[in-house]
Amino acid sequence: MSDRNRNDNDKNPLEIPENTPSGQPKPIRAAKNDKTMKKVKYAYAFALLLALGTALIAKISTENALGNLAPIESDYVTITTENSTSKDSEFLTTEPDFEVRQNLEDVPDTRKETEENTEQQTKEETTQSSKYAIPYQDYYSLPLGTDILKDYSPDKPTYSATMGDWRTHSGIDFKAAEGEQVKAISYGTVKNIYDDALWGTVVVIDHGNGVTAKYCGFNKETLEIKKGATVESGSLLGYLGTIPCEKSELSHLHFEISYNGENVEPLELMGK
């Protein structure tokens, strides 16, 4: 075999000839395709890294923002099962845990005490304002003058110069000279007129609404009313005389009031 033939036979049948029959350079499409694929891979890798970096920065920013928020107290808790999603979460009202419940139980409940105090205060105010359930209480007038010689003293004994002993005082004494007018404190009916060894001539008038007044120390000869008579507020009853059991004291009218049969402080009942 000639050298030419041998050389031709030794050539790689797959080798691309350097020059095409037309005289153009050999194709470089395969090389270009390799470079293009490498660029595409680099681009994907860069895009992926950029996306991961952006996501990481967003997550860090969100956590920082949430960390600066004040905690929000709520009566609700979220209960999520293993197979549930945030969409499936349910908000349920639950009782506080044992520690919280125990702390709450240690706090004293003052509501009952406050209610009792309010009720007691209301009761006391009602008792004070309506101790005597008397309509038109302000219409009472004094029997004479305003000068009080001796106060009402049902519990604490006071000395009696006339009797020479200590005794309680069941009424009040209005200082006045003998012969001064004694008037009715309100509308009423004369229940009784009698002479008493201690209190002299006494006039008893029922003023209604459980109020009965006893006027002591009249001059019997000057009485202007009789038993059963009806009187008005300010009606003249008679003129002042003397009181045997208090004759050593200055001249005065001894005046008592009973409310529903019980002796009471006259001025308090009349709202004076």
CATH class of one domain: Mainly Beta
Determine the CATH topology of one domain: Glucose Permease (Domain IIA)
Structural class: alpha+beta
Q: Any guess at the CATH architecture of one domain?
A: Distorted Sandwich
Instruction: Please tell me the overall pLDDT.
Output: 76
Beta-strand residue percentage: 25-35%
Question: What is the CATH homologous superfamily assignment of one domain?
Answer: Glucose Permease (Domain IIA)
Number of strands: 14
The parts where pLDDT drops under 50 for at least 5 residues are: 1-9, 12-23, 74-93, 125-130
| Rg computed from alpha carbons, rounded to a whole number of angstroms | 58 Å
Name the assembly state: single chain
Major sheet summary line: 8 strands, antiparallel
- As a percent range, the share of helical residues equals 25-40%
**What characteristic shape results from the CA principal axes?**
rod-shaped
- The string of secondary-structure elements, in order, is HHEEHHEEEEEEEEEEEEH
Q: Can you count the helices? A: 5
Alpha carbon gap, first and last residue: 160 Å
